[in-house]
Amino acid sequence: MARILLTAGPTRAYFDDVRFMTNASSGRMAAALATAALGRGHDVTIVSGPVPITYPTRARVIPVVTTTEMLAAALAELPACDGVVAAAAPCDFEPITRASGKIPRRGTGLTVELRPTPDVIATLAGRAEAAQWFVAFALEPGADPRRAFEKIEAKRCDLIVVNDLTAIEGQKTAVTVYDRQHATVGSRAGTKRTVAAWLVRVFEERLIRGRNS
Length: 213
Hints:
With about 210 residues, this protein is of the alpha/beta class. It is about 30% helix and about 25% strand. The protein has a single domain (about 5-95, about 115-210), classed as 3-Layer(aba) Sandwich (Rossmann fold), CATH 3.40.50.10300.
């Protein structure tokens, strides 16, 4: 049995107290992963941005809104977990300043300067203890693995799960898993429940059992 920390859903980056930018991540893949992991006896804590779905009742859920909040909550949970599965799609950028109230409409338009948000999975992996393992998800056009290879090295993860843009908001997905040596671990397509069940078995075989043996 492993104690799994799962990040999930989108985050929000606010322009003012009313408007924000986000993405279409639904949290369905994370919910499917949580269901599969719980079904195999693992303990699951989910740090989730705002989603329209309900997570499994046996999972412990910590709701957050912004990328900074997601990182803070995940860091607080990190010492108590054996591994992290970063299925969230946090905003990569945020406005440098957040206006109070509501920015009035202007006929001349509006220019907003953005800055990078903290990299959640890279920060978590950088704080890892020796026995902890990390899995990143990478959403890439056409599921191109080249950027994923850059990410697995930069983020210091053990495995990376690559899917393409069709996974957003859909009930189905197709993924390929790669390891740190850029070798293909395997591929699977189908409903998110089916793919999640396969992924959890991959994590067990490649990460959980190996670390516990």
